[in-house]
Amino acid sequence: MPLISLTTDFGDLYPAAMKAVILGISPDTQIIDITHSIRQAGIREGAFALYSLVQYFPPGTVHIGVVDPGVGTSRRALAIKAGDEGKEQFFVGPDNGLLIPAACRLGEMEVHEITNPKLMLKSGISATFHGRDIFAPAGAHLSKGTLIEAVGPRISDFVNLDFKNFGIDGPFLVGEVIFADSFGNVITNIPEDIILKFSTFGSQVEVNGRRISFVHTYGFVGQEEPLALIGSHGFLEIAVNKGSAARQFGLKSGEQVVIKTV
Q1: For 132, which DSSP code?
Q2: Quick one: what percent of the chain has pLDDT higher than 70?
Q3: Residue 198: which H helix or E strand, with range?
Q4: For residue 237, what is the enclosing H or E element?
Q5: By C-alpha distance, which of 91, 70, 71, 96 is closest to 81?
Q6: What H or E segment, with its residue span, contains residue 53?
Q7: 255 to each of 109, 111, 153, 178, how far by Cα in Å?
Q8: What does DSSP assign to residue 169?
Q9: What is the dihedral angle through the alpha carbons of 251, 254, 258, 261, rounded to the nearest 10 degrees?
Q10: CA dihedral 122, 128, 132, 137 (to 10 degrees)
Q11: Can you tell me the distance from the alpha carbon of 2 to that of 23, in angstroms, rounded to the nearest whole number?
């Protein structure tokens, strides 16, 4: 059974149009919603959502990602094949970096620009809804076995996006918030192996000048107390036990976060 995932900043209504197009081309497709609650134009947030889950999907999955503030401009539409031979997954979406971290996580990538009109919506292409008119039909065709070479020419000058752009300055780790989940947990781009070189579980760290415990999980501190931990995604996370770190620390996606070992 073909499997397609959807990640967008659309909220309600618009994902249903994409699903209708997909099912019209590939009626047996199973569609999984990763999320449609990405902050509007939150490309890095959408990229992280897809990155954090892609390794759990089976080979052959097609991931359609649409966080696309450049829709209707000269930005390109992409289809990507990534992963070891026989275990590849596919990605479809705009050329703005959204798909790249997840695709890179699987291994080698083959990136193509979508130019084949036969793989687009036959009724026409809206300037404002490429999710429905280009990405959904192209993804549906890929899920049915269309070769990625058929979508259009292979390219190498795609827009890149790397979560691991953080700095180290003595005892300071300078990173950024890449995602805040619905619990208010704040996920930084500082990976597990880096923070563990600077600190150990049971110690304390300073987050933007505020000292908190660095522990294994939420229950190691009292209710409403802040903490730092390594999240299931493998990055340093700032949280509050039964509370919201995003609200308590005033941190939003894209903002700088400074971690100091104590």
Answers
A1: I
A2: 100
A3: helix 192-198
A4: strand 235-240
A5: 91
A6: helix 43-53
A7: 30, 30, 37, 8
A8: E
A9: 90
A10: 50
A11: 11
92-120 confidence digits (pLDDT tens): 999 999 999 999 999 999 999 999 999 99
Mapped onto helix, strand or coil, the DSSP state of residue 159 is coil
139: tokens are: 């993804």
DSSP class per residue in 78-125: EEEEESSTTS-EEEEEESSSTTHHHHHHHS-EEEEE---GGGS-TT--
Q: Is residue 20 predicted with pLDDT exceeding 90?
A: yes
The two structure tokens encoding residue 163: 């979560």
From CA 63, how far away is CA 234, in angstroms rounded? 21
Neighbours of 149 (CB within 10 A): 13
Q: Pairing mode, if any, of strands 3-8 and 30-35?
A: parallel
pTM value is 0.93
Residue type (1 letter), 191: P
Q: Which residues contact 5 (CB under 8 A, 6 or more apart)?
A: 31, 32, 33, 34, 50, 53, 57, 61, 62, 63, 64
